[in-house]
Design brief:
Blueprint lengths: L1 H5 L2 H51 L2 E2 L10 E2 L3 H6 L3 H13 L2 H19 L3 H13 L2 H11 L6 H8 L15 H26 L3 H9 L4 H12 L1 H16 L3 H6 L11 H11 L3 H29 L3
Antiparallel strand pairs: 1-2
Helix pairs in contact: 2-15, 5-9, 6-9, 12-15, 14-15
Length: 316
Protein backbone atom coordinates (compact mmCIF):
# COMPACT_ATOMS: atom_id res chain seq x y z
CA UNK A 1 0.00 0.00 0.00
CA UNK A 2 2.74 2.45 0.94
CA UNK A 3 4.80 1.54 -2.14
CA UNK A 4 1.85 2.25 -4.44
CA UNK A 5 1.31 5.63 -2.77
CA UNK A 6 4.95 6.67 -2.99
CA UNK A 7 5.48 5.51 -6.57
CA UNK A 8 3.42 8.24 -8.32
CA UNK A 9 5.39 10.94 -6.47
CA UNK A 10 8.79 9.86 -7.81
CA UNK A 11 8.38 11.22 -11.35
CA UNK A 12 7.06 14.50 -9.95
CA UNK A 13 10.13 15.02 -7.71
CA UNK A 14 12.36 14.17 -10.66
CA UNK A 15 10.72 16.81 -12.83
CA UNK A 16 11.15 19.34 -10.03
CA UNK A 17 14.85 18.54 -9.72
CA UNK A 18 15.32 18.92 -13.48
CA UNK A 19 13.45 22.23 -13.42
CA UNK A 20 15.62 23.49 -10.55
CA UNK A 21 18.80 22.42 -12.36
CA UNK A 22 17.61 24.10 -15.56
CA UNK A 23 16.75 27.27 -13.65
CA UNK A 24 20.12 27.33 -11.90
CA UNK A 25 21.93 26.75 -15.18
CA UNK A 26 19.97 29.54 -16.85
CA UNK A 27 20.74 31.93 -13.97
CA UNK A 28 24.43 30.99 -14.08
CA UNK A 29 24.49 31.47 -17.86
CA UNK A 30 22.85 34.91 -17.63
CA UNK A 31 25.28 35.94 -14.89
CA UNK A 32 28.25 34.79 -16.98
CA UNK A 33 26.98 36.72 -20.02
CA UNK A 34 26.56 39.81 -17.86
CA UNK A 35 30.15 39.55 -16.63
CA UNK A 36 31.37 39.11 -20.21
CA UNK A 37 29.63 42.33 -21.25
CA UNK A 38 30.97 44.39 -18.34
CA UNK A 39 34.46 42.86 -18.50
CA UNK A 40 35.97 45.51 -20.86
CA UNK A 41 34.66 48.38 -18.74
CA UNK A 42 35.67 46.64 -15.52
CA UNK A 43 39.14 45.98 -16.93
CA UNK A 44 39.56 49.61 -17.95
CA UNK A 45 38.29 50.79 -14.56
CA UNK A 46 40.75 48.52 -12.78
CA UNK A 47 43.78 49.40 -14.91
CA UNK A 48 43.23 53.14 -15.22
CA UNK A 49 41.53 54.01 -11.91
CA UNK A 50 41.65 51.40 -9.13
CA UNK A 51 45.31 50.38 -9.56
CA UNK A 52 46.57 54.00 -9.91
CA UNK A 53 44.64 55.02 -6.78
CA UNK A 54 46.17 52.16 -4.79
CA UNK A 55 49.63 52.96 -6.22
CA UNK A 56 49.19 56.65 -5.32
CA UNK A 57 48.22 55.71 -1.78
CA UNK A 58 51.34 53.56 -1.39
CA UNK A 59 53.75 55.98 -3.10
CA UNK A 60 52.52 58.93 -1.04
CA UNK A 61 54.48 57.48 1.89
CA UNK A 62 57.71 57.18 -0.11
CA UNK A 63 60.54 59.29 -1.48
CA UNK A 64 60.90 58.11 -5.09
CA UNK A 65 60.99 59.17 -8.71
CA UNK A 66 59.81 56.85 -11.44
CA UNK A 67 63.06 57.11 -13.44
CA UNK A 68 65.21 55.68 -10.63
CA UNK A 69 63.50 52.30 -10.64
CA UNK A 70 61.43 50.36 -8.13
CA UNK A 71 64.48 49.33 -6.07
CA UNK A 72 65.12 52.99 -5.19
CA UNK A 73 61.82 53.44 -3.33
CA UNK A 74 62.45 54.84 0.16
CA UNK A 75 59.75 54.78 2.81
CA UNK A 76 59.43 58.17 4.58
CA UNK A 77 56.17 57.68 6.53
CA UNK A 78 54.16 60.93 6.69
CA UNK A 79 57.00 63.29 5.76
CA UNK A 80 55.41 64.12 2.39
CA UNK A 81 52.17 65.17 4.05
CA UNK A 82 54.08 67.26 6.58
CA UNK A 83 55.85 69.06 3.72
CA UNK A 84 52.53 69.87 2.08
CA UNK A 85 51.49 72.14 4.95
CA UNK A 86 54.86 73.89 4.76
CA UNK A 87 54.91 74.24 0.97
CA UNK A 88 53.98 77.81 0.03
CA UNK A 89 53.36 76.92 -3.60
CA UNK A 90 50.99 74.09 -2.66
CA UNK A 91 49.09 76.35 -0.27
CA UNK A 92 48.90 79.00 -3.00
CA UNK A 93 47.60 76.41 -5.45
CA UNK A 94 44.85 75.38 -3.01
CA UNK A 95 43.83 79.03 -2.59
CA UNK A 96 43.77 79.49 -6.36
CA UNK A 97 41.50 76.46 -6.74
CA UNK A 98 39.16 77.90 -4.12
CA UNK A 99 39.13 81.25 -5.94
CA UNK A 100 38.24 79.50 -9.18
CA UNK A 101 35.26 77.91 -7.42
CA UNK A 102 33.68 81.36 -7.59
CA UNK A 103 33.18 80.71 -11.30
CA UNK A 104 30.46 78.16 -10.52
CA UNK A 105 27.80 80.48 -9.01
CA UNK A 106 28.69 83.25 -11.47
CA UNK A 107 28.33 80.91 -14.44
CA UNK A 108 25.13 79.39 -13.05
CA UNK A 109 23.51 82.81 -12.52
CA UNK A 110 24.42 84.09 -16.01
CA UNK A 111 23.41 80.84 -17.69
CA UNK A 112 20.08 80.65 -15.88
CA UNK A 113 19.28 84.24 -16.85
CA UNK A 114 20.14 83.54 -20.51
CA UNK A 115 18.28 80.21 -20.47
CA UNK A 116 15.05 81.82 -19.23
CA UNK A 117 15.26 84.54 -21.89
CA UNK A 118 16.11 82.16 -24.74
CA UNK A 119 13.50 79.61 -23.68
CA UNK A 120 10.62 82.13 -23.66
CA UNK A 121 11.36 85.29 -25.58
CA UNK A 122 13.78 84.49 -28.41
CA UNK A 123 13.19 83.15 -31.91
CA UNK A 124 15.67 80.71 -33.48
CA UNK A 125 16.43 79.14 -30.10
CA UNK A 126 18.53 76.36 -31.60
CA UNK A 127 20.79 78.90 -33.28
CA UNK A 128 21.49 80.62 -29.97
CA UNK A 129 22.12 77.25 -28.32
CA UNK A 130 24.77 76.47 -30.92
CA UNK A 131 26.34 79.92 -30.57
CA UNK A 132 26.67 79.70 -26.79
CA UNK A 133 27.64 76.02 -26.76
CA UNK A 134 30.47 76.63 -29.25
CA UNK A 135 32.57 78.15 -26.43
CA UNK A 136 32.35 74.89 -24.48
CA UNK A 137 33.27 72.57 -27.37
CA UNK A 138 36.09 74.80 -28.63
CA UNK A 139 39.65 73.59 -28.16
CA UNK A 140 41.04 74.81 -24.84
CA UNK A 141 44.41 75.37 -26.51
CA UNK A 142 42.82 77.65 -29.10
CA UNK A 143 40.79 79.46 -26.43
CA UNK A 144 43.91 80.02 -24.30
CA UNK A 145 45.91 81.42 -27.23
CA UNK A 146 43.07 83.76 -28.22
CA UNK A 147 42.78 85.11 -24.69
CA UNK A 148 46.55 85.53 -24.50
CA UNK A 149 46.22 87.92 -27.44
CA UNK A 150 43.11 89.63 -26.05
CA UNK A 151 44.69 90.20 -22.61
CA UNK A 152 48.12 91.29 -23.89
CA UNK A 153 49.23 94.13 -21.57
CA UNK A 154 50.38 96.50 -24.31
CA UNK A 155 48.82 95.56 -27.63
CA UNK A 156 45.81 93.47 -26.61
CA UNK A 157 42.38 94.57 -27.90
CA UNK A 158 40.98 94.67 -24.36
CA UNK A 159 43.53 97.18 -23.08
CA UNK A 160 43.44 99.12 -26.33
CA UNK A 161 39.69 99.56 -25.83
CA UNK A 162 40.16 100.60 -22.19
CA UNK A 163 42.78 103.17 -23.22
CA UNK A 164 40.40 104.55 -25.84
CA UNK A 165 37.80 104.92 -23.07
CA UNK A 166 40.20 107.17 -21.13
CA UNK A 167 41.76 104.64 -18.72
CA UNK A 168 45.44 105.53 -18.63
CA UNK A 169 46.74 102.49 -16.72
CA UNK A 170 44.63 99.46 -17.68
CA UNK A 171 45.17 96.17 -15.84
CA UNK A 172 48.09 93.96 -16.84
CA UNK A 173 45.73 90.95 -16.73
CA UNK A 174 47.73 87.74 -17.11
CA UNK A 175 51.02 89.54 -16.38
CA UNK A 176 49.85 90.85 -12.98
CA UNK A 177 50.32 88.54 -10.00
CA UNK A 178 47.29 90.05 -8.24
CA UNK A 179 44.88 89.92 -11.18
CA UNK A 180 45.98 86.92 -13.24
CA UNK A 181 43.92 84.34 -11.34
CA UNK A 182 40.78 86.47 -11.76
CA UNK A 183 41.47 86.73 -15.49
CA UNK A 184 41.59 82.92 -15.56
CA UNK A 185 38.30 82.90 -13.64
CA UNK A 186 36.66 85.10 -16.31
CA UNK A 187 37.90 82.78 -19.05
CA UNK A 188 36.57 79.77 -17.16
CA UNK A 189 33.15 81.44 -16.89
CA UNK A 190 33.15 82.18 -20.62
CA UNK A 191 34.07 78.58 -21.47
CA UNK A 192 31.46 77.00 -19.16
CA UNK A 193 28.44 79.17 -19.98
CA UNK A 194 27.50 77.08 -23.01
CA UNK A 195 27.33 73.82 -21.07
CA UNK A 196 25.38 75.34 -18.17
CA UNK A 197 23.00 77.03 -20.61
CA UNK A 198 22.12 73.82 -22.47
CA UNK A 199 21.50 71.95 -19.22
CA UNK A 200 19.32 74.74 -17.81
CA UNK A 201 17.24 74.95 -20.99
CA UNK A 202 16.65 71.19 -20.79
CA UNK A 203 15.60 71.64 -17.15
CA UNK A 204 13.23 74.50 -18.02
CA UNK A 205 11.52 72.43 -20.67
CA UNK A 206 10.90 69.72 -18.10
CA UNK A 207 8.95 71.99 -15.72
CA UNK A 208 5.18 71.26 -15.94
CA UNK A 209 3.24 74.18 -17.44
CA UNK A 210 0.43 73.53 -14.95
CA UNK A 211 2.56 75.11 -12.23
CA UNK A 212 2.85 78.38 -14.17
CA UNK A 213 -0.87 78.35 -14.98
CA UNK A 214 -1.69 77.87 -11.30
CA UNK A 215 0.67 80.72 -10.44
CA UNK A 216 -1.09 82.97 -13.01
CA UNK A 217 -4.45 82.16 -11.46
CA UNK A 218 -3.07 83.15 -8.05
CA UNK A 219 -1.91 86.47 -9.50
CA UNK A 220 1.81 85.76 -9.31
CA UNK A 221 4.15 88.20 -11.03
CA UNK A 222 6.97 87.16 -13.34
CA UNK A 223 9.47 87.49 -10.47
CA UNK A 224 7.31 85.40 -8.14
CA UNK A 225 7.01 82.64 -10.77
CA UNK A 226 10.79 82.67 -11.22
CA UNK A 227 11.45 82.75 -7.46
CA UNK A 228 8.89 80.18 -6.31
CA UNK A 229 8.42 77.93 -9.36
CA UNK A 230 11.38 78.05 -11.76
CA UNK A 231 14.29 78.13 -9.33
CA UNK A 232 12.94 75.40 -6.97
CA UNK A 233 12.06 73.14 -9.89
CA UNK A 234 15.56 73.62 -11.31
CA UNK A 235 17.28 72.80 -8.02
CA UNK A 236 18.24 69.23 -9.12
CA UNK A 237 19.74 70.71 -12.29
CA UNK A 238 21.61 73.32 -10.25
CA UNK A 239 22.89 70.64 -7.88
CA UNK A 240 24.17 68.60 -10.84
CA UNK A 241 25.96 71.64 -12.28
CA UNK A 242 27.52 72.49 -8.92
CA UNK A 243 28.89 68.97 -8.48
CA UNK A 244 30.29 68.75 -12.00
CA UNK A 245 31.60 72.32 -11.76
CA UNK A 246 33.55 71.61 -8.58
CA UNK A 247 35.05 68.46 -10.09
CA UNK A 248 36.04 70.38 -13.23
CA UNK A 249 37.56 73.22 -11.20
CA UNK A 250 39.75 70.93 -9.12
CA UNK A 251 40.99 69.06 -12.19
CA UNK A 252 41.61 72.11 -14.37
CA UNK A 253 45.00 71.77 -16.06
CA UNK A 254 45.04 72.38 -19.82
CA UNK A 255 43.87 75.99 -19.60
CA UNK A 256 46.53 76.85 -17.01
CA UNK A 257 49.25 74.97 -18.89
CA UNK A 258 48.71 76.82 -22.16
CA UNK A 259 47.55 80.18 -20.83
CA UNK A 260 50.00 81.02 -18.05
CA UNK A 261 52.04 77.90 -17.17
CA UNK A 262 51.27 78.73 -13.54
CA UNK A 263 52.77 82.22 -13.75
CA UNK A 264 53.49 84.91 -13.12
CA UNK A 265 55.31 83.87 -9.92
CA UNK A 266 52.97 80.89 -9.35
CA UNK A 267 49.99 83.26 -9.07
CA UNK A 268 47.85 80.99 -11.27
CA UNK A 269 49.25 77.62 -10.21
CA UNK A 270 46.49 75.16 -9.30
CA UNK A 271 46.76 71.80 -7.57
CA UNK A 272 46.74 69.56 -10.64
CA UNK A 273 49.26 71.72 -12.48
CA UNK A 274 51.59 71.80 -9.47
CA UNK A 275 51.18 68.03 -9.13
CA UNK A 276 52.17 67.63 -12.80
CA UNK A 277 55.26 69.83 -12.38
CA UNK A 278 56.30 68.01 -9.22
CA UNK A 279 55.91 64.53 -10.73
CA UNK A 280 57.11 64.96 -14.32
CA UNK A 281 59.38 68.01 -14.21
CA UNK A 282 60.97 67.80 -10.76
CA UNK A 283 60.63 63.98 -10.70
CA UNK A 284 59.33 63.83 -7.12
CA UNK A 285 56.85 61.03 -7.61
CA UNK A 286 56.29 60.31 -3.92
CA UNK A 287 55.62 63.94 -3.06
CA UNK A 288 53.30 64.30 -6.08
CA UNK A 289 51.39 61.20 -4.94
CA UNK A 290 50.83 62.86 -1.57
CA UNK A 291 49.39 65.87 -3.42
CA UNK A 292 47.11 63.60 -5.41
CA UNK A 293 45.86 61.94 -2.25
CA UNK A 294 45.28 65.34 -0.62
CA UNK A 295 43.33 66.43 -3.70
CA UNK A 296 41.22 63.28 -3.53
CA UNK A 297 40.42 63.88 0.15
CA UNK A 298 39.48 67.52 -0.49
CA UNK A 299 37.10 66.63 -3.33
CA UNK A 300 35.63 63.80 -1.23
CA UNK A 301 34.98 66.14 1.73
CA UNK A 302 33.35 68.76 -0.50
CA UNK A 303 31.19 66.07 -2.14
CA UNK A 304 30.02 64.76 1.24
CA UNK A 305 29.14 68.30 2.35
CA UNK A 306 27.18 68.76 -0.88
CA UNK A 307 25.27 65.51 -0.41
CA UNK A 308 24.39 66.50 3.14
CA UNK A 309 23.36 70.03 2.19
CA UNK A 310 21.34 69.15 -0.89
CA UNK A 311 18.62 67.57 1.26
CA UNK A 312 17.63 71.04 2.46
CA UNK A 313 17.39 72.87 -0.86
CA UNK A 314 17.05 70.33 -3.68
CA UNK A 315 13.43 69.51 -4.57
CA UNK A 316 12.97 66.21 -6.41
Amino acid sequence: MNSTLEHPNKPVSGRKEKAIRRSNYQAWKETLIGYVFIAPTLLGLTVFFIIPIIATLILSFTDWNFIAGVDKIKFVAIDNFTKLFQDDIFIRSVKNNLILLMAIPITAAISLFLAIIINKHVYFKNTFKVIYFSSYISSIVAVAIVFQVLFHPSHGPVNQFLVSMGIENPPMWLADTQIAIYAVLMIQVWVSIGFYLIIYIAGLQGIPKDLYEAADIDGATRWHKTRYVTIPMLSPTTFFLIVTGIIYTFRIFDLIKVLTAGGPANSTTVMVYYLYETAFVNLKTGYASAMGLALLVMVLIITIIQLMGQKKWVNY
